[in-house]
Specification:
It is a single chain. This protein is an all-alpha fold and about 300 residues long. Helix content is about 65%, strand content about 0%. It has 2 domains: about 80 residues, no CATH class; about 190 residues, Hypothetical protein af1432. It is built from 17 helices and 2 strands. The chain has a two-stranded antiparallel ribbon with strand order 1-2. α7 runs antiparallel to α8.
């Protein structure tokens, strides 16, 4: 039985939880931040531009402060003189500032909810892994010529959205599930499906869809553990492949300091490399540069 404030829902293999029902009924799950609603409306409007984004960000002082701090971090700029949101957009570009704003609003909302849930999973380490995966996704995106590396960063940063939601929905149960999977010789996703009727990737996609995220992010969240066959031929598929490979690389080049449920045996490295078109040797050759990107992305740890 999983309990959230004011809501009790059963989660068993024979009576799986309905994702839509859970998202609608669990009181502790954060509602979509108003600032994110406005940002996504800007994203959806083909006639919108930098001026519309700056207007939205200016309406939320905490978000604007964090955007400015990240914009002045080594990950985005070596100038450290971006004191105005207009200047941020002019120097870094509309796409970069837009993605940073999305990441900040989502992360701030979820981290606050998880902190109050009192779970057993080290959510701060989960966030560190998320930042590492985001940085690697951006790096790999540039290697393969993906058209929007900042979009890939967002997809990588938020790829484990479902784990954060499970930490809010069933914190004690989820901690035990991760700890018990070795004794049962099952992967994390298998344990999640047996317990809840869905895994964290499916949940992340459903949650992102309920928050009206762009379809390309919904797919990347939902399918980053799905086995791919052959080279990705569409933008959506490539984004998913990049995140899947970045997740694998993150767990090997900079492994989490606690058990977050990673199962090396459940990851098909050969298929992930083939899907992105990158060989293992090409990725290995980038390890030093990837570590530098990870170090520069540290500013995201204190969102």
């Amino acid at each position: 039985m999983a309990t959230a404030t004011g809501t009790t829902m059963h989660a068993t293999a024979t009576h799986p939880v309905d994702l839509r029902q859970m998202l609608a009924e669990v009181d502790d799950l954060p509602s979509i931040p108003e600032t994110l609603i406005r940002i996504l409306k800007v994203l959806d409007d083909p006639a919108s531009g930098p001026a519309d984004l700056t207007r939205v960000v200016r309406m939320d002082a905490p978000v604007m402060t964090k955007v400015l701090r990240l914009a002045n971090s080594p990950y985005y700029s070596s100038r450290a003189d971006l004191a105005d949101i207009n200047r941020c957009v002019a120097v870094l570009g509309y796409r970069t500032v837009r993605q940073v704003a999305i990441c900040i609003t989502v992360a701030s909302s979820l981290m606050s909810a998880v902190e109050n849930a009192g779970g057993r999973l080290d959510y701060r380490e989960l966030w560190r892994h998320s930042v590492v995966t985001g940085a690697i996704s951006r790096h790999l995106a540039r290697l393969v010529g993906y058209p929007d590396p900042e979009e890939a960063f967002t997809a990588g940063l938020l790829h484990d959205l479902g784990k954060f939601v499970l930490e809010v929905y069933a914190p004690q149960m989820y901690g035990r599930l991760i700890a018990d999977r070795h004794a049962r010789s099952l992967s994390l996703t298998e344990m999640e499906r047996a317990t809840f009727g869905f895994d964290h990737a499916e949940l992340g996609a459903a949650f992102a869809e309920s928050w009206r995220f762009p379809p390309i992010l919904v797919q990347a969240f939902g399918e980053h553990h799905t086995a791919m066959i052959g080279r990705a031929t569409t933008r959506d598929a490539m984004a998913t492949a990049i995140v899947g490979l970045a997740d694998l690389v993150a767990n090997t080049i900079d492994p989490p300091r606690g058990d977050l449920g990673f199962d090396a045996d459940a990851s098909d490295a050969a298929r992930l490399h083939a899907a992105t078109g990158l060989t293992p040797e090409e990725v290995t050759a980038e390890h030093d540069a990837i570590r530098e990107d990870i170090a520069r992305a540290a500013a995201f740890l204190s969102i």
